[in-house]
Amino acid sequence: xxxxxxxxxxxxxxxxxxxxxxxxxxxxxxxxxxxxxxxxxxxxxxxxxxxxxxxxxxxxxxxxxxxxxxxxxxxxxxxxxxxxxxxxxxxxxxxxxxxxxxxxxxxxxxxxxxxxxxxxxxxxxxxxxxxxxxxxxxxxxxxxxxxxxxxxxxxxxxxxxxxxxxxxxxxxxxxxxxxxxxxxxxxxxxxxxxxxxxxxxxxxxxxxxxxxxxxxxxxxxxxxx
Length: 225
Prior knowledge:
- By secondary structure, this protein is an alpha+beta fold.
- The protein is about 25% helix and about 25% strand.
- It has 2 domains: about 1-60, no CATH class; about 80-215.
- Helix 1 (about 10-25) packs across helix 2.
């Protein structure tokens, strides 16, 4: 499995989109699904165009072990059900955000829909400056991904090598940790579904690429760590 290396190369994204939509004009304005197996070929095609235009690709070395013959593959545990995607996201962030702040690492997962109800996957541990919910916390087969969530760890500065160093002080934060980054929003725009964010202040945010609105989720959970 391969994916575009974060942060995305915006110039490469723009060129890849232009070439892709020139070949598939019917898909213009319709973001590709990150989970629909019917669009796997289209996703691969776009990735090739991104790479061709100097976008960097990284490959995952993780290969899931093959189950013994005669056994059924288990789906990730279901965390839910919830009545709405927002409710599932709040529950996921309530679980992930304290860990994220304590470890100063990003955690992430997906929000998915099954039989009219909503669930979340993860939280899966990422790095001090990134997470990969599609690769590290996939949704069960036969479900529809309707959003993703991630956290931003604690307030930090960057050392000489670019690594995050905890400060615990919002006035000494070089990563704008209480807000979505431009890359975060670009990723959700590309996937075509909302993103949810847990922050070191304890505030939870939602970005909806369909409307371009970046809002605070009600009943956010204080950091408490």
